[in-house]
Write a structure and sequence with these properties.
about 325 residues; 12 helices; six-stranded parallel beta sheet; single chain
Length: about 325
């Protein structure tokens, strides 16, 4: 399956035919897919929402959308409404992995397939599938690439990591991927700051600022999400550490997600390595899983996006695969 995209253009996705599985289009019947997010709080979710809608249209579906504003009860009612509308499938981003289980059971009773986008549900006997980035593996590859740069440059490193909300499996897996690598490289890397952001930008800024004040020699930094980049940039500027590669005081820096901020930071030389979720591929997996389940085929409980790592050196050749580059390109021409 070809998962690359030459450019992110929602209209072009339609024209390109993408990677929808065989049997997706039955134009003679009007078919609908519910695309149900709990929020649009980050560029990843905003772009994911748009890509899923366009992928659904490309597969011959009319997308029906809802946002629950992080309200589990509201989202359950929205699922019931979509079931009453007899949608062909539900793609959902839930807030709470356990609270979504009654909604899965309702969909099961109605015979409507449900796919969880980027956030798997808690274990249960309810039947659904989930699409998720292989967070731990992507983070391991990302941090390994940063460590390789550190070894090439020589010297010793004081490291900090910004950790997400540990109620979110994505955050746990990314944290674990970081330590999988740094624990094997203790000869050159000492972790001096574990910053618990709880996915709160204000907390991330305050605690990173405090960490830089307590450890002014931090020179190796990894964030668990690119949506914190504005706060990281500000904190590093205050500390006099927002420097480009090659400049005195540059902090070896890695991001995760692949948003437009990551692309810009790599392009401008402030970030060295980025872990990228292949959002286009994840959307293809979600639509494809709905198609398979509607045909009675077995679909694994978890479908993984292997993602990829991008560096300053590979940026030009790989940027077209980045959803963030597509967003950046649309904004900057």
């Amino acid at each position: 399956m070809n998962v690359t995209r030459r450019a992110f253009n929602l209209g072009a996705i339609l024209a390109a035919g993408t990677v929808i599985l065989p049997g997706a289009v039955r134009a003679e019947d009007e078919k609908t897919i519910a695309i149900m997010f709990d929020s649009l709080q980050s560029p990843f979710w905003v772009t994911g929402f748009d890509v899923l809608k366009e992928k659904a249209k490309a597969a011959g579906y009319t997308p029906l959308e809802s946002i629950s504003n992080l309200d589990d009860n509201k989202q359950f009612e929205q699922v019931q409404s979509m079931i009453q509308k007899k949608v062909s499938g539900i793609i959902i981003v839930q807030t709470d992995s356990k609270a979504v289980i009654p909604a899965i059971r309702e969909a099961n009773k109605a015979g409507i397939p449900m796919v969880h986008f980027n956030r798997p549900p808690a274990e249960s006997d309810a039947k659904s599938s989930a699409v998720q980035a292989d967070n731990r593996a992507i983070m391991k590859s990302t941090v390994q690439a940063l460590v390789d740069k550190a070894r090439k440059a020589g010297g010793k490193y004081k490291a900090a990591i910004l950790i997400g909300d540990l109620g979110d499996q994505n955050a746990i897996q990314r944290r674990d991927g970081f330590f999988d690598v740094v624990d094997q490289n203790k000869d050159i890397i000492e972790v001096v700051a574990r910053i618990s952001t709880e996915w709160n930008p204000d907390k991330a800024f305050a605690d990173l600022t405090n960490a830089l004040q307590a450890n002014p020699d931090i020179n190796f930094l990894v964030t668990s999400s690119d949506f914190l980049l504005p706060q990281i940039q500000q904190a590093l500027k205050i500390a006099g550490k927002w420097k480009k590669t090659g400049e005195e005081g540059h902090v070896l820096f890695a991001g995760f997600d692949g948003d437009e901020g990551q692309y810009a930071a790599l392009k401008d030389g402030y970030m060295d390595v980025g872990g990228v979720q292949n959002l286009f591929y994840e959307a293809d997996l979600a639509i494809g899983a709905i198609e398979k389940m509607n045909k009675g085929e077995d679909v694994p409980k978890l479908l993984l996006d292997p993602g990829f790592v991008i560096t300053q050196e590979t940026l030009d050749q790989d940027r077209d695969k980045m959803w963030g580059y597509a967003v950046w390109k649309k904004a900057n021409g």
